[in-house]
Amino acid sequence: MSAVGTYFYNIFRSLYTVVVGMKITINHLFTRSATVQYPTVKMKIPERARNRLYVNIDDCIGCDQCSMACPVDCITIDTIKSTPDVDLGLTSKNTKKRLYVPRFDIDIAKCCYCGLCVWPCPTDCIVMTDVYEFSEFDRKKLVYSFSNMTSEEIAGAQERLKKYDEEQTAKKAAAKAAAPITPPPPKPEPPAS
Amino acid sequence: MLQPPTLPTNYTVKQGHIKTSTGKTIRTEEMIINMGPQHPSTHGVLRLEIVVDGEIIVDCIPHIGYLHRCFEKHCEHMTNYQQVIPYADRMDYCSAMTNEWAFALATERMLKIEVPERVEYIRVIMAELQRIASHLIAVGTYGIDSGAFTPFLYTFIDREKILDLFEMTCGARLLYNYIWIGGLSHDLPPKFVEQAKDFVRYFRPRLKMLNDLLSYNEIFVKRTANVGVLPKDVAINYAVSGPQLRGSGVNWDLRRDDPYSIYHKLEWEPQVGKGEMGTVGDCWDRHIVRMHEMEQCLNIIEQAIAGLPEGNVQAAIPRRIRPEKDAEIYVRTESSRGELGFYIVSDGTASPFRVKARGPAFVNLSVLPEIAKGGMIADLVLIAGSIDIVLGEVDR
Amino acid sequence: MEFIQTLLANELVVSILLSLLPLVFIIAYALVVLYTEMKVAAHIQDRVAYMRTGWHGLLQPIADMLKLLQKEDIIPDKADRLLFRLAPIIAFVGTYAAYAVLPFSSIYIGSNINLGAFFLVAVGSLVVVGILMAGWASNNKWSLFGGVRSAAQMISYEIPTAIAIIIVVMITGSLNLQDVTKFQDGGIGNWVVFGGPLPWLQKLMLMPFTIITFFILFVSSIAEVNRTPFDLPEAESELVQGFNTEYSGMRFAMFYLSEYANLFTVSAVGVALFLGGWSSPFGTFMSGPVWGLFWFVAKAYVFVLVQIWVRWTVPRLRVDQLMYVSWKVLTPWLFVCLLSVGLILVL
B117-146 vs B150-170: helix axis angle to the nearest 10? Predict the structure, then answer.
């Protein structure tokens, strides 16, 4: 196309495409807007949503699997072994609980909401809920403590454990003193190489 | 020791003289400007140091590292390989599924795991949906860079529908932790197939509307055609990949040329820039390659949904991931931005010894000084936008 | 206007009062146009704008103004203090002075001078000076870019504006805007954009040229106001607000106000010259001094709406393309129109 032809063609094309664009925008001017007016209207959250964590501490057996699975180390668990004379009860899956859980802290500010802690839990006690409005003004309030043991209960459990351990060591020492010395079993022959 | 590229401290701006027609001489001087980390259109925290002569760019030096989060170092301290997936998500946060897939693929090849067929199909559907979502961000922000504020809002409305699909499946909208080593975390929910088909039907006319509003608008064409031309040989020499490479006329797509998963069973065409509105390899070509790619993604999604087999998506997930000592592997995939590769070295323990991520945005960005020289500042913004960088991937 | 003079019988007080009337109008109009732009932009983009301040955000412009009024006044350390302070004032003065010659109604015009159109073009250049000062005095390389680009742009686009005004003056025979409007009184057929109140043969031959001239005047007036697609001086994506970068609080409000006032001015000039100003399109129905005000403001407002519509649709032009459009497209076409209109009027 000659230079003059290109000149006129460019002018025509500019005007035409601008008019096409303006037609599209004026159409959108009269369509319903896509805004959902939060917080008066809240959208429905799907059932698999991964938001704030919740721990049902009555079901927790203190296995530490969730804490090891967390990639950002936001779960801190302390456990105290229980003594045979105490019955901690059963979890909802009818397994026996053997550990006290005096401390189960989740720093929800560090949590990356990946859901990796939910999968290894044997009793399904840690779940991701659909709560997403939990902002606080104070950062310390974002460390959630799920344990419900009072400090007297914790002290009592530690006491009982200490006593039980001392009894066990005393029993072992007495059994060792009373038992005859037996020679260890012979080692098996290594295979001829 | 390698120094990062900067202007030398004794760099003196070049001074010149212009003789006017009346015989007077006007003294001119170059200017060093900082298009700083905080800028509305550098797509993240990227610092560009520009030396300008009036409006013409004489030199351009990118400075990166403002978003470095030590991803590769973190990987060495994970308790197992499965924990790396949330971290890999956060590298290229606009296109998270492709990152997870690349890492999972690398580990699966190292451990020689065969994933079920259903897993492959679902991974392809998710990756292609993610590619559409990522290109929608690229196109929307490119419109804002050039001054048209409206297409951005339209692309984000479409993107919301894709994110709804993802939220329905795995629970998260941006950083999914969905593609696990050996399988997936959840199977597709019952309503997914229907909603995905609805989305495909809804999106095709929207693509046409976006093209009418932005891509073929004469002002946009005049801004982007013949600007930032990246010749074929320069692109190949700089190891550029993805839509940027295809925009320069090189017909190279890892999904076809180094195939992984089930891409060889599906019918689709890699889109190549043809220089319709200017030279081959200009910003308009890269933009239109992205627009056409979104259409091809729709085709792939339709075919994958039609051929989806039954199966258990968690059948092949290993209980313990412990590769052999001194096993190393490099696997590359086609992410939304180009060739995303993971190089993993294992030392026999449950956590990797070294993970190196080859980020496509980092390599694509290296070509910026080459193609920006000689253009204007207004062009620089559009060239940086057409490279489609995500600083999370550049800095890791 | 005369009866106010007889009421107060003191010329100085009367002139001050009459010259403050457009200021009241500007402030009221600025609130309306802020709200309109915000809502129209939002609905074009499929979203809703403010909904909380007042019913559907009606009180939002007032909130914006209050916020700007009580902001801290920051002047950068190494900025040129005098120029920095003067720049918004000069930009606003340039815009406001143009209101002196706009014929709001048949009984009210700020200053009924015989050089109305010429005065408009002359005073519009003051805004350029203001923007240049803002760009230079901010001691910021990005503001400098914005100021320099703006100067080049506004100077180039004054030429198509001036030539378009000359074409109208040729048809109507007077530079006085009030006389130009009176010339077009009597219904839609008498408007200059349709050829003016001339014999129908001349009208038919004039019509294509006047329509093109009106369109070109509209385009160059968008450029004068620094709006997309010509908003390079304040290109938000590149220059972080351009010459406006270092301004905050009341000074920024002055620039903002002067931009919106300018929007109205150029629309009003186009309306006064081409579309009959305050005259009603129905002839004598709905005409009169108060109706005249309504028609004038309504017609100008329609063009303000069109400018808002264009802003949110179209990308922006680069500097050299801007210059190309002005010098190589608008000006030659206007010269062709000028010669043709002259020939047709002579014959």
Answer: 160
Is residue B1 in a domain? no
Q: Chain B partners of A12 at a C-beta cutoff of 8 Å? A: none
Q: What value does the CA radius of gyration of chain C take, rounded to a whole number of Å?
A: 21
Q: How many domains does chain B have?
A: 2
Say yes or no: B161 and B131 in one domain.
yes
pLDDT 10s digits, B107-133: 999 989 899 999 999 999 999 999 999
Closest CB to A25 among C48, C312, C329: C312
Is the pLDDT assigned to residue B203 strictly greater than 90? Answer: yes
pTM of the model: 0.89
- The reply to whether B35 falls in a domain is yes
The residues near C81 (Cβ < 8 Å, ≥ 6 apart) are C75, C137
In chain C, what are the domain boundaries? 81-346
Same domain, B219 and B306: yes
Q: What is the pLDDT of residues B31-82, one digit of tens each?
A: 888 887 877 666 788 888 888 887 788 888 888 888 999 999 988 888 888 8
Residues of the domain holding B265: 71-395
Measure in Å the smallest separation between the Cα of C47 and chain A Cα atoms.
5
- Full set of structural domains in chain A with CATH: 53-152 (3.30.70.3270)
Q: Does A37 touch chain C (CB under 8 A)?
A: yes
According to DSSP, residue A96 is labeled B
Q: Which chain B residues have a beta carbon less than 8 Å from that of C47?
A: 153
A150 conformational bin, left if phi > 0, alpha if psi -120 to 50, beta if neither: beta
Q: What is the pLDDT of residues A152-177, one digit of tens each?
A: 888 888 888 888 888 889 888 888 88
Chain segment C306-330, per-residue pLDDT in tens: 988 888 888 888 888 888 888 999 9
- Regarding whether B164 and B40 lie in a shared domain, the answer is no
CB contact under 8 A, A28 and C46: yes
* Phi, psi of A127, deg, nearest 5: -135, 160
Asked whether residue B223 falls in the same domain as residue B123, the answer is yes
B385 shares its domain with B323? yes
Please give, rounded to a whole number of angstroms, the shortest distance from the CA of C287 to a CA of chain A: 32
Residues of A in contact with C308 (CB under 8 A): none
Q: What is the CATH number of the domain that holds B378?
A: 1.10.645.10
Neighbours of chain C (3+ CB pairs under 8 A): A, B
Domain end residue (candidates: B63, B96, B120): B63
- B27 and B122, same domain (yes or no): no
Q: Based on the fold, state whether residues B185 and B279 are members of the same structural domain.
A: yes
Residues B31 and B171 occupy one common structural domain: no
The model's pLDDT over C11-41, given as tens digits with 9 standing for 90+, comes to 778 778 888 888 888 889 989 999 999 999 9
Say yes or no for a CB contact (<8 Å) between A21 and B175.
no
CB-based contacts of C319-324 (< 8 A; 24+ apart in sequence): C319/B55, C319/B376, C319/B378, C319/C149, C319/C152, C319/C153, C319/C232, C320/B376, C321/B222, C321/B223, C322/C153, C322/C156, C322/C223, C322/C230, C322/C232, C323/C152, C323/C153, C323/C156
DSSP B45-82: S-EEEEEEETTEEEEEEEE--TT---HHHHHTT-SSGG
Q: Provide the residue type at A168 as one letter.
A: Q
